[in-house]
Please model this.
Amino acid sequence: MPAKGENRGTTAVVIMGVSGAGKSTIGEMLAKFLKCRFLDADDFHPESNKEKMKRGIPLSDEDRIPWLEMLRDTLNASLASGESVILGCSALQKRYREILRSANPSYKPCTYATSSSLVKFVLLEVGVDVLVARLEERAAKGKHFMPAKLLQSQLDLLQIDESEGILKVDATQSPQAIVNTIQQKL
Model:
């Protein structure tokens, strides 16, 4: 990815996965390595979404779609200004990713596997036992609003279509190994 302000090769990389996969940790490290901005999608949730999740209530599409559209618009502004950006976002379903892909004004729906796509996705794959342990540790430290009991609802929603060309990375590796893999394969 180019340096900030350089239009050629500007991209948005979405680090995706369920809660506890490591999106924020990996996204921050990758952004630092690539010298670009990191956005945490959790920071864009309205308070009503955060409260709903704190109470153990899964978000509905009515909750998610405006949030995803806000993220899309933020990515679009970055791309339009020639700024590469890393976004940590669950992006659990293909239709949610389509909203994010449309941050690229020249994107045509369902043409996601083209090498010219400005919005790329990286899935952090982690087993359920590891995810639960991470979420419980995070909750014990008061570091996040989403309880471990909502993990299953996210796993149920996760939908990966091989034709999307999503880079899958084993997120049980060390954070540095994950970042190295991503930067080598993007």
